[in-house]
Structure formats: C-alpha cells, structure tokens
Design a protein that fits this description.
The protein contains eight helices and five strands; from the N terminus they run E-H-E-H-H-H-E-H-E-H-H-E-H. The protein has helices at residues 16-27, 34-43, 60-68, 73-96, 106-110, 125-133, 140-161, 183-198; strands at residues 4-10, 30-32, 99-102, 115-122, 174-177. Mean pLDDT is 84; it is low at 58-74.
C-alpha cells in the first residue's frame, strides 16, 4: 500500500506550519517544511542553489521572460531541475513512511505516486496581521500589503503546475480557518480522518 502524505497549503501567517508540526507529532510521522527539505537536498548532493531557486515565488513572469528572451532558456532548464529536485527530495521522505509536508506544491508533485491528503489552512486577515506584527515592527497597512503579496506569490507558485485553485475548497480534502477553529481541534479532525482512511 502506498504511504499517505498529508500536504498542507496555507495562507501566510495562518498558522499552517504550526498545524503541520502538531499533526506530525500526534501521528508520530516525519515533518518536512522548506528548511528541512532544503537541508535534505544538500545531503542528497543536489546542485547548490537549485533547490533555493523555487521558494514559493511567482513563476508566470519567469515563463513570460523565457518567451520574450531566448537567452533565458538556461534558466528554463534550471527551473526543470528545480521541480525534479523537489520531487526527489519529497519522494525520499515519503518513501520512508507516512509524513506531513508543508507547502512546496507537494500535493501536485506527489499526487500520482502516494496517497495524498491535501489540507488548506487559512485565517482572517486581521488575525494574520496581528500574528505577523508579533514578530515584525511595521504599521498595519504595511503588514497587510506584505501578507497579500506573500499570498499572491504562493498562489502563483502553486498554480504553475497546478490547476489554478490554490486556496479553493474544491481542490482540497479539507479546509480550515484558524481564526474560527482552535488548532488542536483542527488536528483532531485530521487525525480522525487519517485513522479512518489508513488505520491506526
């Protein structure tokens, strides 16, 4: 039986990464985020800088530049290397056993090879702004602009090989709002689902 992989998409400052960590701890499975996956890429000997090139940034503008600038073809080759590098790193983790992966388009990259359970975590904007301002010094207007930009980047990054449905409910098994539901309750629901689908 294929291993299950819980892939968590999230709005910026929604608490999605925290939910992922809590979920992995409750289930007793491995947890992977961008930092951990980047370290694993280096351990696998993946070319320096390749994995860092895709850090949930927009890619549509990149594709436009390739069309307009023939000299950008080398970058296009590198982009292909980046997607394959991410697939290899995530697959290595998933092959070890069930796991939780946050971000990186994991659900789309792994959906044909593993039992993917896609989850999206969002939150009300005022709560996201408050959470961001707990760690950064700026005014609320600037924080809102930054959060909105990060969301646009994540959407563009996801939609590049996805179906244009980043953050849309019909693209995920489950969607949650951490402003309206406690993170522990969210984890309880996901754990119950996993246990029913894949056994304890």
């Amino acid at each position: 039986m294929k291993n299950y992989v819980i892939c968590i998409g999230r709005q910026f400052c929604s608490g999605g990464k925290q939910v992922g960590k809590m979920l992995a701890e409750r289930l007793g499975v491995d947890f992977y985020d961008a930092e951990i996956l980047r370290a694993k890429a280096k351990d696998m000997g993946i070319e320096d800088g390749i994995f860092d090139m895709f850090d949930e940034k927009p890619t549509r503008s990149f594709l436009f530049s390739v069309v307009m600038d023939p000299y950008a073809i080398d970058s296009a080759v590198n982009e292909g290397k980046v997607v394959e590098a991410q697939r290899k790193v995530m697959a290595q983790g998933a092959d070890k056993g069930p796991c939780v992966i946050v971000g990186r388009r994991a659900d789309k990259i792994l959906e044909n090879d593993y039992n993917v359970v896609s989850v999206f975590i969002g939150a009300d904007m005022e709560h996201r702004i408050a959470r961001y301002l707990e760690r950064e010094s700026m005014n609320e207007r600037a924080a809102r602009r930054f959060i909105e930009r990060k969301d646009r980047e994540r959407a563009a990054y996801y939609n590049y090989i996805g179906d244009g449905k980043w953050g849309k409910a019909d693209n995920y098994a489950m969607c949650f709002n951490t402003s309206k539901m406690d993170k522990d309750k969210i984890v309880d629901i996901i754990v119950d689902y996993i246990n029913e689908e894949f056994g304890k």
